[in-house]
Amino acid sequence: MLKVLFFARIREELACSGLELHWPDTRLDLYTLQEQLCAEHGQSWRDILTQDNMIRAVNQKVVTDNCELNDGDEIAFFPPVTGG
Amino acid sequence: MENISINVHEADFDVAGLQRGLLSGLSEEGAVATFTGYVRRANDDRQVSTLELEHYPGMTEQSIKTIIDEAADRWPLLAASVVHRVGRLSPGDQIVWVGVASTHREAAFSACEFIMDYLKTRAPFWKKELGPFGEIWVSARQDDESRAARWQDDSTP
C-alpha cells in the first residue's frame, strides 16, 4: 500500500486530500508514480502535479530528485511552505 | 540536546508560561532569547480578516526537530522550544513562539533567529488569507529564502 497526500493549494486544486494505492509488486519510483497519477486523472492533474515549484516528500522528508519507492511509503505533494 | 519542546496546536499560548517551561530543570542558564510572531492586519495591502493555517502533521514536528538539532550543533544551547498555531486565526493573534536558552546571549540570539528563519522556509505550514478580497493562499517570499540561505554561507552572518 502507498499513501499519497496533497496539502494546501494543491489539495484544493485537485479537490483531493489523499489517495491509497495498492503496491504494484514491481519496482516503482516517484516520477513513475506521478506519471501514473497524471495518466489516471487527466490533464488537470498533470498541469498541477508538474508545476515548477512543486515540493515532493517521501516518508515526510523532502526529496529534490526522483527516488525509488517501497511498499508502505507515504508520498506528499505540496506548494512552497509559508509558516511562521 | 535533550531539552526540546515542539507543540503544534490550535489553542493560543502564554509566553510567560512557555518561558518558565523552557527554563525548568536548567541550572546553567544565562540568557534566553524568544521570538513571538503575530498575524498581520494587512499583507501586501490586503486587509486580512481571517488567517487559516494548514500543516502536515508528523512532518511538521519532525522538520522542526531537525531545525533545532541543527541549531544545537552550531551553538551551545541548553533548551529550545517552538510553538506554532494552526487552524483559524485573526489579525493580532499570536501565531508562533520560539524560545532558546543558553549560557550567553550570543548563542541565544543567533539560534533563535536561525530557528525562525529555517522554520519559515522548511516546516510544512501553509497560510491562507481571507478577507474582502476573497481568499488567497499566501505565496512563499524570496526574502525568507534569502534570510535562511545566509546561514549556509557563514555560521555567523
Describe this structure in words.
The complex is a heterodimer of chains A (84) and B (157). Chain A is of the alpha+beta class. Chain A has one domain (2-78): Beta-grasp domain (Ubiquitin-like (UB roll), Roll). Chain A contains 3 helices and 5 strands; from the N terminus they run βαβααβββ. In chain A, strands 2-1-5-3-4 form a 5-stranded mixed sheet. In chain A, helix 2 (30-41) packs antiparallel against helix 3. The longest helix of chain A is centred in the middle third of the chain and has 12 residues, at 30-41. The mean pLDDT of chain A is 97. With 157 residues, chain B is an alpha+beta fold. Chain B has helices at residues 15-23, 59-74, 105-122, 142-153, and strands spanning 4-9, 31-38, 42-43, 46-47, 50-55, 77-85, 87-89, 94-102, 125-131, 134-137. A 4-stranded mixed sheet of chain B has the order 1-6-8-2, sandwiched between helices. The longest helix of chain B has 18 residues, at 105-122. Chain B is globular, with a radius of gyration of 16 Å.
